[in-house]
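Summary of Year 1 activities. Much of the first year was spent building the evaluation harness for sequence design. The harness presents a backbone, in tokenized form, and records the residue chosen at every position. We chose the following record to illustrate the format because it has been used consistently in internal testing since the harness was completed.
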């Protein structure tokens, strides 16, 4: 385990459950100036919750290492929660600990209220 994301969602879940997904953001398709043409969110871990709080461990992986290399030690993570037809999300940077070190606990700010993806 490299990181443990812990936090909560604001308000009640629109449905009985919610799925909370942790993704790493990777850049690809660089132009001649070294600017990425595309950012991809790669799923790393997820958990189904029935309350407003969550704790999600993210294991060491090639994706985390690649994102860490691209970010010069920093990884941009995306936390997405979906419940029924509603969603909420938050971007959070973190620096994964060195291999063999204790996992880093990342306390995510309370996610905004669930909204319709169209709004």
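For this record, the design step produced the sequence shown next.
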């Amino acid at each position: 385990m490299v990181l443990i994301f812990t936090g909560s969602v604001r308000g009640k879940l629109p449905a009985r459950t919610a799925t909370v997904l942790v993704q790493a953001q990777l850049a690809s398709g660089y132009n001649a100036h070294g600017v990425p043409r595309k950012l991809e969110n790669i799923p790393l871990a997820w958990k189904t919750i029935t309350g407003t709080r969550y704790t999600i461990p993210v294991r060491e992986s090639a994706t985390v290492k690649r994102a860490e290399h691209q970010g010069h030690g920093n990884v941009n993570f995306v936390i997405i929660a979906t419940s029924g037809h509603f969603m909420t999300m938050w971007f959070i940077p973190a620096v994964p600990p060195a291999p063999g070190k204790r996992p880093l606990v990342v306390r995510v700010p309370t996610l905004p209220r669930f909204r319709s993806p169209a709004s």
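The helical segments are 62-70. Quantitative recovery figures across the full test set are reported in Table 2.
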